[in-house]
Design brief:
Layout (H helix, E strand, L loop, with lengths): L1 H25 L1 H31 L3 H4 L2 H8 L2 H7 L1 H5 L1 H4 L13 H5 L2 H24 L4 H26 L12 H22 L9 H26 L2 H11 L1 H21 L3 H4 L2 H23 L7 H32 L25
Helix pairs in contact: 1-2, 1-17, 2-4, 2-5, 2-9, 2-10, 2-11, 2-16, 2-17, 4-17, 5-9, 9-10, 10-11, 11-12, 11-16, 12-14, 14-16
């Protein structure tokens, strides 16, 4: 089956690459911004998987063990996500207006932070840190005390680095705009991407148990909605023109339709659906909501990145499927290789003791939940 599909993937990747080239010729800014949003979304899957994996090291049970293999496999693809980011670093002058001095006051701290060289160094450091974290937490598996130590330290490093990455990659596309909650919003973006992707892989297998996956996904969706609502409320109450303009650009025309579609499909539909225990604990229904959540991360990234840019409709029509198909297939091939490697690894398939106390000491008398 796999070997029969690979030629089709190659054909699809070539079509995606052709769409990228044509859209680049039509309008480079449209293509580059779309590519940025696509690779930010793809990188959110392995980086979010790292964060979720560390959480499962601290909150353990049968339901967390079930996610270990896909989370670990996704986390190990972080270097591929980094490689996909190389065109973004090359295209900085065409992507970010602050490279030309727009929205940045000379001599200010913002001017130092938003310097092309420093931006590139930070991005390289982010991916280097996340790659080290992925390897570090993988090696800690099935060693309770080590799992607690690595996850506790790793989550702090992740939260700081991912918050800065969100501000660098997406918020700085509009240097006049600033939101104090943007970093936290980007954290939930990554957590949703990593958890929902791992859930999709696990639940794709017929007869797979659902454990408490539905309740966890619902909690993440509520956190995501809360962060977006808080940012909107803070900006609305502040009534600052530059920040209001950021929202006005996303509420007008086709972007307004996209924004409401994201709100309806990512919050209203799954929230009310998962109030039912049948849907929340059903494999097929949960699989649908998880896969929809992964797909909607692309829509959210486009909404965050593309408005307020010089966008050509025809170029955008080609750039969105072209970048998703091409970059997505490159990452997916890496994930398949990583998944097979993790499944065959004796270390990664070792079972955990039944339960642990807060320090990571096994508690033989307690059962898994």
């Amino acid at each position: 089956m796999k070997s029969a599909l690979r030629p089709r993937w190659l054909g699809a990747a070539l079509l995606g690459l052709a769409a990228i080239v044509v859209s680049l010729l039509i309008e480079p800014t449209t293509l580059l911004t779309t590519y940025l949003a696509t690779v930010v979304t793809l990188s959110a899957i392995p980086v979010g998987a790292i964060a979720v994996l560390m959480v499962t090291y601290l909150v353990r049970g049968a339901w967390t063990e079930g996610l270990h293999i896909p989370l670990t496999a996704a986390a190990l693809t972080t270097p591929i996500a980094a490689a996909l980011f190389i065109p973004v670093l090359i295209a900085l002058p065409w992507l970010y207006p602050w490279t030309q001095g727009a929205g940045v006051q000379a001599g200010s701290l913002n001017a130092v932070w938003l310097a092309p060289g420093f931006f590139i160094i930070r991005t390289v450091l982010y991916f280097a840190l996340w790659t080290v974290l992925a390897i570090w937490i993988r090696r800690a598996w099935a060693e309770p005390r080590r799992m607690v130590a690595t996850a506790s330290a790793g989550l702090i490093l992740y939260a700081l680095s991912a918050s800065f990455a969100g501000v660098d990659w997406l918020e700085s596309l509009t240097p006049e705009f600033h939101s104090s909650i943007y970093g936290l919003l980007f954290l939930t973006f990554q957590l949703l991407a990593g958890f929902a992707f791992a859930l999709t892989i696990v639940l794709s297998k017929p007869g797979a148990p659902t454990f408490r996956y539905g309740a966890t996904l619902l909690s993440l969706l509520l956190l995501w909605a809360y962060n977006h609502a808080m940012q909107y409320i803070i900006i609305w109450s502040g009534n600052i023109p530059d920040e209001a303009a950021w929202y006005l650009a996303r509420e007008a025309g086709a972007w307004g339709v996209a924004l409401w579609a994201l709100f309806a499909l990512q919050f209203i539909l799954p929230f009310f659906a998962m109030l039912s225990s049948t849907i929340r604990n059903g494999r097929r229904s949960l699989l649908f909501i998880a896969s929809l959540t992964v797909a909607l991360r692309f829509l959210e990234a486009f909404i965050l990145a593309l408005p307020q840019r010089q966008i050509d409709g025809m170029a955008l029509f080609l750039a969105i499927p072209g970048t998703i198909v091409f970059a997505g297939l490159v990452w997916w091939v890496a994930f398949e290789f990583s998944l097979e490697r993790v499944r065959r690894s004796a270390r990664d398939t070792r079972p955990l003791p039944d339960a642990f106390d807060a320090s990571g000491t096994p508690v033989a008398s307690a059962g898994k939940s």
